[in-house]
Amino acid sequence: MEKLQLPPKPEKSLFKKIRAIIITILVIALYVWTFKNIDIDWGRAIERSIDNFHRVIPKLFSPDWAAAGKVGLAMLETVFIAFAGSLMAAILAIPLSFLAAKNMMGGKAVSTVGKWILSAIRAFPDLILAILFVVAVGPNAFAGVLAIAIGSTGMLGKMFSEIIESIDMEVVQAMEANGANKIQILFYGVLPQITPEFLSYAIYRFEVDIRASSILGIVGAGGIGTMIIFASSNRNWNEMGMILLAIVIVVTIIDFASAKIRRKIV
């Protein structure tokens, strides 16, 4: 039997080769310029890094078990902040996602406005939102909940709108042809198609928010981040090791649990 010969790979044009070389040179030049203009004493930085490695790392791997109780309570508060913020975000994202979906609002102008709103919300990092809400409502867990809620609304709204735009519109058109009103179309034609993916993305966002809420306490927005600040300020690396261990355990458990739930939903 004759062996099947694969067609030869198309050769890159001279223009593409030159373009690739120029881009590579520019990227290398940018890195060289960046490191050259950063005012860093590399010898001192390396020396301090080695010193910190020998002094701090062993303590991080020797967690202070006496602090397990208060670390557990702070981690529980962090989970509550993430859950409350994710739930608020999922609720707020639903109307915004319908506003941003091209196939729902009947006009490109309206959907463009919806997309702009979601883009504006996504422009603010969680830490910036946390700082703003700490100023507005005080240094407490509620500021963290609001920061997570607003920060996650932009991302969930974008994901939800893409899900809505990908639904089978023939179902909607068939219901319209049979005289169904807007409410009936929404509950029997649209929601059954989008609900599983909405739930899947909301659960996934909760995973992300667990990690985000772990650091919001750094700016006074509650959770275990507050303990991180105090432990690092006091150079209490054994307690820091306990905090990191708690974060790793909780995040791992939630990742496995949410992955199983999402597999059953979708």
UniProtKB/TrEMBL annotation:
Listed GO MF terms: ABC-type phosphonate transporter activity
Keywords: Membrane, Transmembrane, Transmembrane helix, Transport
Gene: phnE_2
Topological category with respect to the lipid bilayer: Multi-pass membrane protein
ABC transmembrane type-1 domain: residues covered: 75-258
Domain of life (superkingdom): Bacteria
TM ranges: 20-38, 79-101, 215-234, 240-259
Family according to the record: Belongs to the binding-protein-dependent transport system permease family.
GO cellular component labels: cell envelope; plasma membrane
Species: Ornithinibacillus bavariensis
InterPro entries for this protein: MetI-like, MetI-like_sf, PhnE/PtxC
Name of the protein: Phosphonate ABC transporter permease
Subcellular location as annotated: Cell envelope; Cell membrane; Membrane
SUPFAM superfamilies: MetI-like (SSF161098)
Pfam families, per the entry: BPD_transp_1
